[in-house]
């Protein structure tokens, strides 16, 4: 009988060690003064002595992946950009409640460990963590031969942050008369790629196709990393204090579904679509796939990546801070009493299991 081994079963532990060696410097570059211990341990640790200064610290946590955008990365054989998508999807959900990220971890499952590819993925995560001043404290790379194809992989991440209880952002703070400030997206971010891939399949367009209106290939556009909002949002909170009432990260479900989640029952966020400069990738995909305006806005961010709900007098400062961080911002609308819908408006409420306020979308998207 043939003698079996872990290697013959398809798991190459030496390749895993090689991947760790390749990514180690990138991971360590994210470590702040609060990180306790080095890399390679069973658990990452961070010194939270500073929390003793909090009156009532609340821990916030979030976990996510990047969905089928990974298939675009695999097809393009470019693996060092989706890490920023992962960080954006996880850490920017934490900042929505006003929390400062303390740490992040990642998980990669693959059919076969190819050290350079794994290291490139983690390097992208680490570089994005540096941008939002969040230590990448640890992770796991799991080889699943026979379950996943040799070139297949998936990634996920989790993060933890902290916020003072009486500084928590959310529906309880939102008031009638507040202003909605939109912050631009860098593109599709990492939502709706199952629809994107279906459009490409049925249209026959390939990822290496040069698209003049995009100024690059279709694949390059689809791999554009997610905009990171954490640093800008934390600065807004510091600058305007209690005048920042809520934040909404515009991810799966689009503007209406995500905005309504941070509003209280009885109030509505009246948002004017015509104020939004829609990046050209959206009308292009809509035309290629025959996607309706409603399906598009229920799937993609349409160029709005984050929305701040602020007192009217703080709006200009919030927009200035956003601009200093390289993020275009504009007046999107305002908070009103919920009229239950009006002619020419689309009312969205009760999404993601949240029974709160409503988003009222009016006007037409500014499709270029």
Q: Secondary structure elements and their pairing?
A:
Elements: H1 13-28, E1 35-36, E2 45-46, E3 57-65, H2 69-76, H3 82-94, E4 100-110, H4 115-131, E5 136-143, E6 153-164, E7 179-184, H5 193-203, E8 210-211, E9 216-217, H6 218-222, H7 230-240, E10 244-249, H8 254-260, E11 267-272, E12 277-278, H9 281-289, H10 293-297, E13 304-310, H11 315-324, E14 329-337, E15 345-349, E16 358-362, E17 366-367
Parallel strand pairs: 4-5, 11-16, 12-17
Antiparallel strand pairs: 1-2, 3-6, 4-6, 7-13, 7-14, 8-9, 10-13, 11-14, 15-16
Fold and architecture overview:
The protein has 2 domains: 140 residues, 2-Layer Sandwich (60s Ribosomal Protein L30, Chain: A), CATH 3.30.1330; 197 residues, PurM-like C-terminal domain (Phosphoribosyl-aminoimidazole Synthetase, Chain A, domain 2), CATH 3.90.650.10. The protein is 30% helix and 26% strand. The protein is built from 11 helices and 17 strands. The protein is an alpha+beta fold. The chain starts with 12 loop residues before the first helix and ends with a strand. The longest helix has 17 residues.
Relevant terms:
60s Ribosomal Protein L30, Chain: A, Phosphoribosyl-aminoimidazole Synthetase, Chain A, domain 2, 2 domains, four-stranded mixed sheet, 17 strands, PurM-like_C_sf, purine biosynthesis, PurM-like_N_sf
């Amino acid at each position: 009988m043939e003698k079996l081994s872990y290697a013959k079963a398809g798991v190459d532990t030496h390749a895993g060690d090689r991947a760790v060696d390749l990514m180690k410097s990138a991971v360590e570059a994210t470590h702040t003064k609060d990180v306790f211990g080095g890399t390679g341990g069973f658990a990452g640790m961070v010194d939270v002595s500073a929390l003793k200064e909090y009156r009532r610290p609340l821990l916030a946590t979030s976990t996510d992946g990047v969905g089928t955008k990974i298939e675009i990365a695999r097809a393009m054989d470019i693996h060092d950009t989706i890490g920023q998508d992962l960080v954006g999807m996880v850490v920017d959900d934490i900042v929505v409640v006003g929390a400062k990220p303390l740490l992040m971890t990642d998980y990669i499952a693959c059919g076969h460990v190819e050290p350079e590819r794994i290291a490139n993925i983690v390097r992208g995560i680490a570089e994005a963590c540096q941008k939002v001043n969040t230590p990448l404290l640890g992770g796991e790379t799991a080889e699943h031969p026979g379950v996943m194809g040799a070139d297949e992989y998936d990634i996920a991440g989790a993060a933890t942050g902290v916020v003072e209880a009486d500084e928590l952002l959310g529906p309880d703070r939102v008031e009638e008369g507040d202003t909605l400030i939109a912050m631009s997206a860098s593109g599709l971010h990492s939502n709706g790629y199952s629809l994107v891939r279906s459009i490409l399949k049925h249209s026959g367009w390939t990822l290496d196709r040069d698209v003049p209106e995009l100024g690059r290939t279709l694949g390059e556009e689809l791999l554009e990393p997610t905009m990171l909002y954490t640093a800008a949002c934390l600065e807004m909170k510091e600058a305007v204090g209690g005048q920042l009432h809520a934040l909404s990260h515009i991810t799966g479900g689009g503007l209406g579904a995500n905005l309504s989640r941070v509003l209280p029952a009885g109030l509505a966020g009246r948002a004017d679509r015509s104020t939004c400069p829609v990046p050209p990738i959206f009308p292009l995909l809509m035309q290629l796939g025959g996607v309706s305006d409603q399906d598009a806005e229920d799937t993609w961010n349409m160029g709005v990546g984050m929305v701040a709900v602020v007192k009217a007098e703080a709006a200009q400062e919030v927009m200035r801070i956003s601009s200093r961080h390289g993020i275009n911002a504009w007046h999107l609308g305002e908070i009103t009493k919920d009229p239950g819908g009006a002619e020419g408006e689309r009312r969205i409420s009760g999404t993601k299991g949240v029974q709160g306020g409503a988003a009222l979308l009016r006007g037409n998207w500014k499709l270029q």
